[in-house]
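Request: Could I get any protein with tokenized structure?
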Amino acid sequence: MADRISRRRLLTVASTSVIALRSASNIGSATQGTERILQESFESAPERTRPSGWTKSGTGVARVVVPDGGNSVAGSKIFGMFGSDDSCSSVSASHELDLQGRTWARFQVYVFPTDRGEDGCTSKRAGLSLHAGESESVTLVELTTDRTVRGPGSEPLGEYAERTWNELVVEYDRSGETVELTYTINGDSRGTISKPRQPAESDFSKLRLDAGVDIVWWDDIEVIASKKTESGSENLTEEGLGAAGGDGKGDSDTKSSIPEFNIFSTFVGGTVAIVVVIFTLLASLSGSGSRSKTSSQRQVTEEDVRDGLEEAEESLQQDRRR
């Protein structure tokens, strides 16, 4: 088990390394560094409540619960959701997301899908999407009841595992004429999907979690995005313009008049990224013992999973009956 965990850790580090090098290559152009814009582990929310900042919609239950067996990713709590068997409807939870003026984002979530629901009620078991207003949206990733991971347009991306934690990583790049979505599921690359830009592409401001009638757990959600820019096709904000240059007007004209600037920035950015990658790999190898212990705690037995499901289901059902 330790060898398997170690290999998965190296895959995760390698994926992070590629992202770091890709980000470095964009320094001096539209993408200038990254920052975390959302991190949620649900630990601060009281049990059997909806976490702060999340808005529920649809018919069903969305509550923080503590499953038995320590079966969580971060801490002891998870966000449990399921829709209504009676009406075959889904339930959603949305969180505001500061994507204005940003051209790239990386979404990393852990989801624990189950088959604890009415068979044949809905085909969607869980989903992650971006929204603008009431009608404009884009699907980032969707888990269907046939155990398939799907992207926009129901494009298949391989399988996922039931009754265990699945790590979903989606890179969302809208810096070009088309939108590119790159997928990594449980450390395995699942390819890239290209889709046309929507008129509302620059207006997405909410991240939404969806669950069908089956019980779904969510945990350890993180969104990292490029910093606000003064150039490109994004709608610009006053804050983004102010951060672009010392006078608040940006400095794209100055940079374009000095071609060597972009070359120097890319070289420096690439060097820094390589140093970070090497340091991360060394740290990963040297600390594999302690990390293996932490990771192995997530590899629970089938009995733990069953107990955790029953505990979470009982707690969620109590909320439903209220």
Summary: The first strand starts at residue 34 and ends at 40.
